[in-house]
Specification:
The chain has 2 domains: 65 residues, no CATH class; 46 residues. The chain is 54% helix and 18% strand. It contains 3 helices and 3 strands. It is of the alpha+beta class and 133 residues long. The protein has a 3-stranded antiparallel β-sheet with strand order 1-2-3.
C-alpha cells in the first residue's frame, strides 16, 4: 500500500491518516478557547474498498466530500501505478533474489523460501488464468 498520509495541496480542507485497515479523514479546526488548531476526526475510508463511511459522509460539507472523492481517485491511480511498477521490475527483482539466495545463510533463506514459493505459485496461477505464457 501507498504510505503517504496526504496530498500536498494548499487548498485542502481535510487531511488523511493511514490507520491499519482504514484511512482516517481529519479536519483542522481552531479551538475557540486557546486559538490553537486541533485535529478533529471526521470519519474513515475503508483502505481495501476505499468506501466512505456513513459517519464521514454525515460529518462533511459538500466541498469536503468533493475533496475526499478527488483524493480517493488520486490514491487509486497511485496504487495502480505502484502495482504496474512492481510488475515491470519483477524480473530484475527476481534476478537479484536469485543472487541473494545463492549466498544467503541457510536459516535465513529457509525462512523466506516458503513465502517466495507460495507467491510464485500464485503468480503462475494468475498468469495461466489470463492465458499468458
Amino acid at each position: 500500500m501507498i504510505t503517504c498520509d496526504h496530498i500536498l495541496l494548499s487548498w485542502r480542507l481535510v487531511h488523511f491518516r493511514f490507520r491499519g485497515n482504514s484511512i482516517q479523514v481529519v479536519k483542522s479546526q481552531r479551538d475557540p478557547v486557546t486559538g490553537r488548531a486541533k485535529s478533529v476526526p471526521l470519519g474513515s475510508i475503508n483502505r481495501l474498498t476505499l468506501g466512505i463511511s456513513a459517519k464521514l459522509r454525515a460529518n462533511c460539507t459538500p466541498d469536503e466530500l468533493k475533496e475526499i472523492a478527488a483524493w480517493v481517485r488520486h490514491y487509486q491511480s497511485l496504487d495502480a501505478l505502484k502495482h504496474k511498477h512492481a510488475a515491470l521490475t519483477l524480473p530484475e527483482q527476481i534476478a537479484a533474489a536469485i543472487q541473494w539466495f545463492k549466498v544467503a545463510d541457510d536459516s535465513e533463506a529457509r525462512q523466506i523460501a516458503d513465502d517466495v514459493l507460495t507467491t510464485a505459485a500464485e503468480l503462475r496461477s494468475t498468469l495461466n488464468k489470463r492465458g499468458l505464457p
